[in-house]
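User: Modeling request: complex.
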Amino acid sequence: MAFFEQHIHDEPKTFLSKYIISYDHKVIGKQFLWYGIFFLGVGGMMALMIRWALAYPGVAFPVIGKFIFPATQGVIPPDTYAMLFSMHGTIMIFYAITPILIGAFGNFCIPLLIGARDMVFPTANMLSFWFAVVSGLILLISLFTPLGAAAGGWTSYPTLSTMVGSPGIGQTLWCLALFVLGISSTMGAVNYITTIITLRAPGMGYFDMPLTIWGLWLTAILNAIFLPVLGAGLLLLIFDRVFGTTFFLAGAAATSGTGDPVLFQHVFWIFGHPEVYILILPAWGIVSDLLSFFARKPAFGAKATALAMTSVTVLSTLVYGHHMFTTQMSPLLTQTFMTLTMTISIPSAIFFANWLGTIWKGSIQFTSPMLFSLGVVFVFGLGGLTGLYLGTVTTDLYLHDTYFVVGHFHYTMAASVLLGGFAGTYFWMPKMFGTMMNEFWAKVHFWITMIGLNGVFMGMMIVGFAGMHRRIYNPFVYEFLERLIPLNMFITWSAILMGFAQIIFVINFVHAVFFRKEKASANPWKVGTLEWTIPSPAPHYNFKEIPVVKCGPHEFGNPALVGRDYQYQTEEVAKA
Amino acid sequence: MIETMNTNLLTEQNRQNEMQKLRSSIAMSVLLVSFSMLFATLILSFVVFRLSSDMWPPMGMERLPLLFPVLSTVLILVSSLTFEFFVGALKKADTELARILFVSTWVLGLGFMATQFLLWNQMQELGYVLETGIFASMIYSFTWIHAAHIILGLAWLLFLIPALKQQVSFSSFEARILSAGKFWHFLGIVWVLLFITLFVV
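Assistant: Request completed. Predicted assembly structure:
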């Protein structure tokens, strides 16, 4: 598809046009980054409260507990506990990971890495951020409503999420917030897809794109197709709650007529399973690139990696039923969904093997982005393998709704994605803000996070395997779970450790953005993709001259190169 | 010299227009996939309820009179036709005719909204309110969601008014016109599907 010149807005002069109502994809990316980091903090605090309640049931939450829960002298009450885990899931998935991986890196990277001057629709891009802000505000306001925020879990299954289960306005606001966020993400997705198709620099074929762009592109496609499905489900749920319809109410719960609560589960997971890949695909892309960059080797089977990610994208749309094995689904269907789910292992194994092939015999540089990328390889391996137990009907019937599930999905979509996000942040920091983050503290941050998160999520899988159910306020009222209290305390202290490690990151980040004096060079990591051919931080127009691409993104270690081991994508492949 | 420069400028302008057309057609296709999934989910829920009921309409309800739904269908289909004629008239630079056809497209859209209101009124008179069970709930909520998109579509059409000025080149507005047209036709198709599922089947 041919490239065309874009109309570029003038460089903004006022504070308002430069930082608030900005059309510049780089500024919008940074706005999303701050937005995501803020919600990461909020969601993280909620996680610590949940963990505290599970390790020390009936004990006041330390330090701030007395101010937040004065009625119970600091002890987290049961209804608040339900609210906390619902909002923790919602915030982390939709308001922390999505903005950071898709909003921040999507906006920042796509034009820079494909050699464009901006997104194809800058106005839609700006609106997409402000819709996300409106949505975030609605969600935060819902925390302060009389009966509290949504408490039906992040999945909000009816009947819990209808007026029967949660009569407060919080759940309605939750639906509304997610609907508005869906509009924001759809706008972003349309923009990303069109930009990648029409604005690739001359000479850049699809397989010359960095794999980061592949990941973001596939994510955008899934977003555009499946977010509206959730949107429709939410609209019907809002109708049930506000206008008294009975789409999702059945039996005695419905005053008249009869709906179907399981219908919502279908609609939710038709969206929800692709959503898992929406979150992880950008991280896969970033990791595929970074492993090659810091092993100083071409990405092993880059084309196969891209195609494997594409097949995962296609397959991800066909497997949602494995979330619903316990809904009295016909055995014919459960087995179909099980087989399709298992099929995903094949493309996943292909790109996973490619990752290992990339670092095999590489001259690995253990910089902070590389450490985090290797962390993703480790935790995603664990998360992916434990998924097999949940995708198999026979084992899932036992493990369903236990902490094993919680551990599994945290490994895949929390740990992998979080580490991938940190890798990207450390890596693109010089291009985003013009300064490097402190390498030493970045590595400290990595190791503490890694130890903490494995303690948390591995522990969760163990207690889950022992039978501990998720979403229970005090599971230890059951005799057979009493012996799990010490293990739960271990998990909680691992979580606290991991939480404190993030303070290191925030200080390092804020220091690098606002206080660091020395500027980063144009290409501190010695990498050849297009964003490193321009100064750091990236100037207003990105590229003075639109670059012409002559080789792939991973040309490392070519023996014909003199004095360096990388070459820019704008250079012909070196020949001896 | 000046002539070659002019032709160069002209071809450059053409190229830009072509690219703009390409860009909007890709973006519109993606957007329409999104909107289709929204309505497809609604129709999926209809199918689930329809197949799991022993009889339809359920609970001894009666089918609605078809007068207003049929009127709506006719109006929205004719408005799609007039839109196509409007594009043709603009291509031939017949501004007068284009104006008439554009206004009739818009008025037919309003007419569609009017028949929807009449339908809702009629339903209320027959005792079908939102809470009277799944049959009435679906008709109300699906038509409401569709009507909200019609309002969006009518607003979108207003952005074509600048193309109605005299001496405007069609090609500079082509991308905008085609996008608005795709959305308008899409809403017509969705209505036909809703008409078949909600009122006929």
